[in-house]
Amino acid sequence: MLKVENLRAEIEDSGEILKGLNLEVNKGEIHAIMGPNGSGKSTLANVLMGHPRYEVTDGSVTFEGEDALELEPDERAKLGMFLAFQYPSEVPGVSVANFLRTAVNSVREEQLSPMDMYRLLQEKMKIMQMDIKFAERYLNEGFSGGEKKRNEILQMLMLDPKLAIMDETDSGLDIDALQVVAKGVNELKGPEFSAVIITHYQRILRYIEPDRVHVMLDGRIVTSGGKDLANQLEEKGYDWVRQEFGAGAKS
């Protein structure tokens, strides 16, 4: 589904951040990407979705057979890519319901009727344990951290993407909110859905079982493995990664 080869990217005034990253995600797979602060995890998420501040200087990103780097962010979304932000933006004056209606209809070939949209919204909000009145509030305005993250996963459920890129969605969540977020991801699991979960911590992987775990260091994936790798990181910390793979490691 997703193939990233020798990806290099930079941002103005910060120099090169991604330094020859390789990654393959097949249909139906859940991948976790872990790494210390500054390793390039969020940059990878933004580059995959087409954030305009980042410049790709080398490499390729293929999604569903298409050259993703040649597509605008909205075109990537229509193909089935979705990014859950680490820090969702507030949009005063735009209700959650209006935002979701516009987003859903923008990626569908045929627009949903208002009644079908309302039914879909009710169904997905029930999964996320959210009161329907929540949809009347302005997007993320005055939301707690947990409410913002639930709202991100609600968007994902409504859009039903082929590939979800989750940029530290677990950051700042208590156990209850974490379980609800994980439930939303697990709701979509199936042969046509894949996810890349970017995280610092192993705890979300207790609720969303990954097929592969990758460790990023200095802009590259330096080692990969199964779920046991996440447990190793929990026990040994990222200093172990630096000692084992910091010098001359290959992606």
Structure description:
With 251 residues, the chain is an alpha/beta fold. It has a domain at 2-88 and 163-245: Rossmann fold. It is built from 8 helices and 12 strands. A 6-stranded mixed sheet has the order 6-9-10-3-11-12, sandwiched between helices. A 4-stranded antiparallel sheet has the order 2-1-4-5. A two-stranded antiparallel ribbon has the order 7-8. Strand 4 and strand 5 (66-67) form a beta hairpin. Helix 3 runs parallel beside helix 5 and helix 5 runs parallel beside helix 6. The two termini are 19 Å apart. 37% of the residues are buried. Mean pLDDT is 90; it is low at 247-251.
**How would you characterize the largest beta sheet?**
6 strands, mixed
β content, as a range?
Answer: 25-35%
Contiguous low-pLDDT stretches (5 residues minimum) are 247-251
CATH class of the domain at 2-88 and 163-245: Alpha Beta
What is the count of DSSP helices, taking H or I runs of 4+ residues? 8
Global mean pLDDT? 90
- Per DSSP E runs of 2 or more residues, the count of β-strands stands at 12
